[in-house]
Structures are given as C-alpha cells and as structure tokens.
Amino acid sequence: MIPFPPPLPAVSLDRIINYVSGGKDHFREDVAVAHRMLDVDPRLLDRVADIDAFAAEAVTEFAAQGISQMLVLQCGLPDLTRPQLHDRLAAAVAGPVQAVYLDNDLQALVHARAYWQAISGVTVLDADLAHPDRLLADPRLAAGLDPHEPVGVLACHSLERLEDDRVDALCTALADYLPAGSLMALAHPTGPDAGRSAEVCTHALADHGGHGHLCARSPDLVERLLSGWQLTLYRTDGANPAGLVTGWATPQPA
C-alpha cells in the first residue's frame, strides 16, 4: 500500500532554490547540496537574486503591454516575505487579473494551494512541463485563463529543468495554444560555473531519490529551443557576472 501522504524526497530543487533565495522551507540535505553547488558556482546567489528581480520586472512589463493574465511555469515555494506575482500584476493593471501557477513538486503545490487557492483569479495546477499535451488539455487551465486574451508567460527556474527536446516541445505547444499578443519572459542559467552547479544538483537529486534535471545552456542554444517564438529582446550576460541570460519573446504567426 502506498502511504498517504507520500514521503517527501530528501532533496528537492524547489527547496534548494528556496534556501538560496533566503527562504525557510528546506531540509538539511537541501542546504548541503546548495553549499556543494556554491563551491563550484560562487555566483549562484547573485543569479537566483537576479532571476527573482527579473520575474518582478516581467510582471510590470506584462501590465505595461496590457496583459492582465499570466502563466507561471514552475512557481516553486511561495515566499510570503515578498509581494506575490499576482499581487504585483493586480497593482499594475486596471480591472481583474488571472494567474495560473504550475509546479509538480508536492511540497510547492501544498504551500501554493494553501496560500493562494482561495484568492479570486488564482489557480494552482499540478503540471509536469515535460508533458505539455497533458497540461494544455487540463480543463482547469482553460478555466483559469481567458483563451481570447493575451497571456504573460513567466519562464524562470523552469526551462533549465527540461531536456532539450522537452523545451522544444513545451515552447511549440505554448506558442500554438496561446492567443496573439502573448508574451514570454524567460531567464536561464548560462556559462561553465552554472553548468557545474547544475551537474552537482542533478546528481544529488538522483542520489537522494528526488526527481529532476538541471542544466545551463548557451544563449544560442536557448534561442534555438524557443520553437514557435520570436525573440523581441535578448540580454546575454556578457556584462553580467552571475551567469544568466534573459529574454522576451512573442508567438510567431502561424
């Protein structure tokens, strides 16, 4: 018989990110893995902070573009010490907002649902980004987003968790599904240090029974994998020592 609730893995990528971000929802082994990652990637703290800052910037840009609904890929564990993304969007637009948060980490889902599920316009879904067909067929996604209005897609702490072919499939599926005027904001680790810490994390997840994969990619590879999307602005980290590439993209016309 499978115990309920199922046991949590000893190491979780969402909990590692929570620790690096200064949160409190992590276990001792998550902390140990995070410090092994920092040993090979001393800019990890800066990169995670930059990703969080970019996410906040992205929500402001969604509002500036007249977008009042967003899809957050791999939302992670909520940090209630900071303004929440849906609150930022609500503060920046006139009228109601819609936000759908996705994750497949049990602990992240439990926390997100506990904090957000009762909030009007906020939906939390258990979704594996490696299987976008299942996600897009979920009626709760269609109920959480107006299919006739543009959507802001927030891809931070997400694409680097997928193999190349899975990123390609996810981007293609989202481009086909989302209406014209939608906008994707993405942040992705890049560079040799980020690659080394990703390898440490991936091995730790496998060794401790967790699920997941982490990688760094070159800016050119990230761009090639954005199937169905047209980059409108791309910032490489030539002047950014944290090992991060960020970009904005819109669905290409069919």
Question: How are the elements arranged and paired?
Answer:
Elements: H1 13-20, H2 28-40, H3 44-64, E1 69-72, H4 85-92, E2 98-103, H5 106-116, E3 122-126, H6 132-137, H7 139-144, E4 152-155, H8 164-177, E5 183-189, H9 192-207, H10 219-225, E6 229-235, E7 244-251
Parallel strand pairs: 1-2, 1-4, 2-3, 4-5
Antiparallel strand pairs: 5-7, 6-7
Report a brief summary of the structure:
It is built from 10 helices and 7 strands. The chain has helices at residues 13-20, 28-40, 44-64, 85-92, 106-116, 132-137, 139-144, 164-177, 192-207, 219-225; strands at 69-72, 98-103, 122-126, 152-155, 183-189, 229-235, 244-251. Helix 4 (85-92) links the parallel strand 1 (69-72) and strand 2 (98-103).
Structural features, described:
The protein is of the alpha/beta class and 254 residues long. It is 43% helix and 16% strand. It has helices at 13-20, 28-40, 44-64, 85-92, 106-116, 132-137, 139-144, 164-177, 192-207, 219-225, and strands spanning 69-72, 98-103, 122-126, 152-155, 183-189, 229-235, 244-251. A 7-stranded mixed β-sheet has the order 3-2-1-4-5-7-6, with helices on both faces. α1 (13-20) packs across α2, α2 (28-40) runs antiparallel to α9 and α3 (44-64) runs parallel beside α4. The longest helix has 21 residues, at 44-64. The chain is globular and about 45 Å long. The termini are far apart. The model has no long low-confidence stretch (mean pLDDT 91).
